[in-house]
Protein: L-threonine 3-dehydrogenase
Organism: Huso huso
Amino acid sequence: MLSVRVCSPGSAASLRFCLGCTNKIPLMRESTRCMSWSPRQLRVQISNPPDTVKSEHPRVLITGGLGQLGVGLARLLRKQYGKNNVILSDIKKPSDEVYNSGPFVYADVLDYKNLQELVINNRITWLVHYSALLSAIGEANVALARRVNITGLHNVLDIALENRLRLFVPSTIGAFGPTSPRDPTPDLCIQRPRTIYGVSKVHAELIGEYFHHKYGLDFRCLRYPGIISADTEPGGGTTDYAVKIFHDAVNSKTFDCYLRPDTRLPMMHISDCHRATLEFLQAPAGQLTLRTYNIGAVSFTPEEVAAEIRSHIPELRVTYTLDAVRQSIADSWPRRFDDSNARRDWGWKPSFSLPELVSDMLRSVRAQREKES
Ligand SMILES: NC(=O)c1ccc[n+]([C@@H]2O[C@H](COP(=O)([O-])OP(=O)(O)OC[C@H]3O[C@@H](n4cnc5c(N)ncnc54)[C@H](O)[C@@H]3O)[C@@H](O)[C@H]2O)c1
Ligand SMILES: C[C@@H](O)[C@H](N)C(=O)O
């Protein structure tokens, strides 16, 4: 039968490291066992307090890795830590190129046992949890979004806690709502999103931070802006227009936008997003005054990005056919992020301005087109 020991200050147990007390208490004997209040009530063998987990040679599992962001992050992590130390996973079939580039496994985040097996068999130390249904597709599939984004997260959190993983979960500009300050939006402010996506991300931020404070889970979360990439497609979000405009500009020189021309949203080039994720994952825990940070880069409207594209493709013609769902989501989101805490604590700095982002996207989309023809 499982019993639970609660550490109280001054007791003999409080001289040992305990999940409930995190790293505030000196570790006396590495072999000491302690019970956690993990929701699945598993016995946890403590061998390393969070700050001594070796970050120089992690073994990484990425869930939901075949979406817009996972493959590029795996490429960057593999460069740093070796091909076989980074496992991509998803419930979709990988392309030949992805399959041949490094380890890939099937993993449904709703299947707790399979995830647990994967983590144990592969001695995973960092888990990057990318599986999610994004804002627009989530509104069209609320029940599924609730399962994947909330139940899936609970599985991952429990596994991270039981196996003492460093857990990275991205949040989003979508974690804010119409009552949040929008220009700029600070890290700590009112968060009352009106989408299942946003609600699930606020839940992820709060429960992750709670597990950090209560059990010492090394939970790390960045709120990403809309991410702009050339060689991977966005997965059904509100910011997807800002990727499609580049493909349409190159292919047909016309673009029909579903947002109003003056809808300002925070955006970021995918390589800035990947670099931010790696730098944040590598940051010493002692430098982090928060566990959830905004990261900003650029902020633009459809008419501003179209104007910048026109400096390369003057013939580009943009029409506007509004999508009421995505417009109302965008109208409730931040217009600009305040990311001063990330800049101060772990040195975050974006590389791509709007002109650089536009030049790079057009160059990449054209190169892709030539390769395909
Ligand atoms: N792309 C962005 O602009 C952006 C911005 C902010 C935050 N984020 C966050 O970053 C993460 C990755 O985003 P993305 O753009 O790559 O998303 P995406 O929609 O492109 O990919 C998500 C992946 O999750 C997978 N998935 C769905 N259900 C699953 C399940 N049950 N088990 C395992 N995998 C499942 C899908 O097959 C898909 O490949 C998400 O959590 C998202 O909320 C993305
Ligand atoms: C912003 C982000 O979370 C995603 N691209 C979406 O629009 O839903």
